[in-house]
Amino acid sequence: MPESPYQQAPYQQAPSAPGAQYPGPAASGYPGPYGSGTAPTQMAADPHRGMALGGTIAGGIGILFACCCTPVGLVLGVVGAVLGHMALSAMKSSGVTTSKELATAAVAAGWTAVGLNVVMAILGVILNLGSAFGGLDTIGS
What we know:
By secondary structure, this protein is mostly helical. It is 56% helix and 0% strand. The chain has helices spanning 24-28, 49-64, 70-94, 100-132. α2 (49-64) packs parallel to α4. The protein is elongated. The relative contact order is 0.13.
């Protein structure tokens, strides 16, 4: 088979000292082709993360329901605040505090939802009483 002028020459290996071997990933400071060769470490699961996440979700949905469905929003706000407080107290007793920010967010979202829903309920009562007595024009007089 004739050699093509475009054919690449085979790769040449550098000469090595007799008995020398490749130093390997640990000696060279670089990881091997498939990582370090050790099993990946897994983070310890936080048992309180579920309560904190559930409280944050319930509080957030409670805030959203403040405008359209005040009783449901009020219940969800209380649930969110209670779950957040439960997660914080459980973290304090166990010493695991990896989800402390999430539990604090659950408490904040829950009590914000409760406050907004109470304000919306009061506004709804005032507006309904005003319309029952002839509108908002007669409330002040």
